[in-house]
């Protein structure tokens, strides 16, 4: 585990399709990473983490779950509070995912490609393998296309397979831009107040049946909604 938790020397790509270089995506990724870093550096951050799961750097991996419309800030926040931990982020196997990957690799994150509609089982196996090597996992459980604020079952399945806790996270901003997208994606305005809220860890028993998994899915949904209020 100690070896796995050393800083990454370069992000790994576990994704389908072509590895052909795309200059436009490369430049867009660089620009968005720059904007996230600059805006993030101006924010007045306050973190609420009563369990210490996020800020005390536990030895075991965890599954970070947050709504899709909070995605802009989470890579910056994760790297600020967990600078030396490796994370594998689940992103869609689509052209939008190609663009997002160019941003996340600049935050030194591993990108695993898949969703409920495409390449889901393969992505789950890859995340399970990386988790056993010491990687945290990053999930937007209502992504990539919604419905908004509806947790999909993938994060519950991974928590059951790996026996790692789910760490629910949300960011509450004093000033922001809200886009007219399916998830009402939010972008913080510079120098805003940002409260980073983490809920108590959620564990899914290895022997959980369908009913127990559904209860955990609903629990995570309720917690994320409460943290976002």
Would you mind describing this structure in some detail?
The protein has one domain. It contains six helices and ten strands. It has helices at residues 23-42, 74-81, 95-104, 120-132, 154-162, 210-227, and strands spanning 13-14, 44-48, 63-65, 87-91, 110-113, 136-139, 166-173, 176-178, 186-188, 193-198. A hairpin with a 7-residue loop joins strand 8 (176-178) and strand 9 (186-188). The strands form two sheets. The chain has an eight-stranded mixed β-sheet, sandwiched between helices. Strands 8-9 form a two-stranded antiparallel ribbon. It has 229 residues and is α/β, with parallel strands linked by helices. Helices cover 34% and strands 19% of the residues. The relative contact order is 0.19. The longest helix has 20 residues, at 23-42.
